[in-house]
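so my prof wants the structure for this chain in the tokens format not the other one, which i didnt know existed until like an hour ago. anyway here's the sequence
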Amino acid sequence: MAAGGRDCSIANALGVIGERWSLLALREVLLGERRFDQIARNTGASRDILAARLRTLVERGVLTRQLYERHPPRYEYLPTEAGQALAPILLALTDWGDRYVTTGPPPTRWEHDCGAELEPELVCRQCHAPVVAGSTRLLRLGQV
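here's what i got, hopefully its the right format
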């Protein structure tokens, strides 16, 4: 249970990935940038902060480190199953940022396997209907 608040999977998830540099590092790894210097350059994070965030992501099972050079020892970061499962969340966050925060055209666009420009949408796994505000009912609420 979250200290001083409701037991909540959102709070639990934010405890792992809910910091700017963690999400941006994860973005880079999912884009294929695996090495520390590349991640630092593309995120703008300071080296000490980035090292701490990457360490946390590895400790929490979101990324794994793999040795790619022995002398001096150097590692690259690869997404685990848990890290790969965050890709749709990052796509949804990108879409939200494009719609409600970014001024001008979206800086990054994606194409789906079907050939269409990707516009992520959350759908029910059972009926495939879109999940929108008002289309869900609370079944259980975490305790405070």
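also thought this was worth mentioning. The chain is about 40% helix and 10% strand.
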